[in-house]
Amino acid sequence: MKTLFKSLLTIFTIMFLFSCGSTPKLQEETQFSEIKETENIQEKQIIFLCTNDSVSELSSKTPFVLDDFEDGNYWYGVGDSWDQWGSHNLSIAAGVVKDWASTGSHCLKAIMEPAGPETSKQATWCCNSLIENNLSGFKWVEVTVNNPQDFDFELNIAIQDGKNYSWMQSKTLLVKPGISTCLFDISEMPDEFLENVFCFMIQSLNENPGGFLYFDDFKLYE
C-alpha cells in the first residue's frame, strides 16, 4: 500500500512540476503574439496629414474622385521622353497594381531612378486622360501616399493647361516613410488656367535613393 501511495505521489509531483514549468512560457508566447498583432494593426492605421499651410476646414461637400485606379491605368512615367526639353527625368514607369490600396483593390505604383546630386532630382508621373479636365473651382488635391522606402520624399502636384501649354505647380510637401494623406494646395492657380487641363502630374523633387512609391485616391476639394 505504501509503495502504491509513493508511486502516485511521485506521478502527481512530476505532473505539477511540468505544468508549472510550461504554463508561463505558453502565456509569454501568447502575450507576445497579441502585442505583435496590435503593433501591426497600429502600423496600418497610422496616417499623417502633410500640408504646408494650416487647413482650418475642407469643404463639407463630397470630394470629386479624380482617380482611384479601379478602372485601369491612364498614367505613365515620362523618363527619357522629356530629355529633349532639358535634364533627364528620373521616372521610369507607372503601373496599376494590387500590392496595396487605400480603398478598393488597386493603386498606382510609381517607379523612379536614384535622384543623386548630379541628376535633375525630378521624377514625374503624368495623366493625360483625366475623367474630368475642368478643375476650375477646386482648391485642394488630396492623395494617399504609401512610402515603403526608408527615406523622405518631397512631392508636389503640377498641371499643364491645354490652351497655352503653360505649367503651374503646387507647393512641395515632405512625405515620410509610411502611409500619408497629403493635401496639395492648388487654390493659387487661376480658374481660367484650370478650365482645360492637358496634363496632370505628381512629382518627386528631392535627392533620394530611388525606388518606388504607391499613390491612391486622387480627390479634389472645393
List the helices and strands and how they pair.
Blueprint (H helix, E strand, L loop, with lengths): L1 H44 L2 E3 L13 E4 L7 E3 L13 E7 L9 E6 L10 E5 L12 E8 L5 E9 L5 E3 L3 E3 L2 E8 L5 H4 L2 E8 L6 E11 L1
What's a concise summary of this model?
With 222 residues, the protein is an alpha+beta fold. Helix content is 22%, strand content 35%.
Task: Please give a structural write-up.
It is built from two helices and 13 strands. By secondary structure, it is α+β, with helices and mostly antiparallel strands. Strands 1, 2, 4, 5, 7, 11 and 13 form a seven-stranded mixed beta sheet that branches. Strands 3, 6, 8, 9, 10 and 12 form a six-stranded antiparallel beta sheet that branches. The relative contact order is 0.21.
